[in-house]
Specification:
- It contains 10 helices and 2 strands; from the N terminus they run ααααββαααααα.
- It is mainly alpha-helical and 195 residues long.
- The chain folds into 2 domains: 72 residues, no CATH class; 108 residues, Orthogonal Bundle (Arc Repressor Mutant, subunit A).
- Strands 1-2 form a two-stranded antiparallel ribbon.
- The longest helix is centred in the C-terminal third of the chain and has 29 residues.
- The C terminus is likely disordered.
Length: 195
Amino acid sequence: MLKAMPIANQKDLQYATSTDFCQIFHQDMNSLYLLSLLLTGDHEKAEQCFVEGLENAVGRNRVFKEWARSWARRIIIQNALRMINPRSGDTNRAVNPLLVTGSDNTERTERPEIGAVVQLPAFDRFVYVMSVLERYSDHDCSVLLGSARRDVLAARARALQQMGRAAESYREHQLATNSDEAILHTSPLLALQAC
């Protein structure tokens, strides 16, 4: 027997306003821009995706306040999907790893974790970001990407393998360049063996 759902009180039914979305995009600017960057793989496209996301969010006010933050992230994903249009079997990769300016705006250092994601083929990158980082279900990923669930599963497996190889390569590079210091920071067991 089904139980009747309790009727929500008026406070629970408040919709997010344009001001609420402006605050969310201001407060979560770094994470929303990073999401845009990871999906698009390009600073200019990421900026465009972020700005259009804000415009879209402000224009849509029929979202419950409690859902506004997740709705903003979903809008970023939808904008990136429109901009990039990744397809299953797409092997296009970003050309260069991303570089992020240092705090003094003169030194440029590579962010290996961002570069590794950006180097994934477009479809694999979207699947990785959506399913692993944003925790979308396989079904939701396949619906949003317009592809079969098996393609999503295969893309995630490829992305995880490539990310694993990138992490191992980075670790080996760190060990080779800073052997003693890197060993001390990798694991307590290795640090003890080094003594």
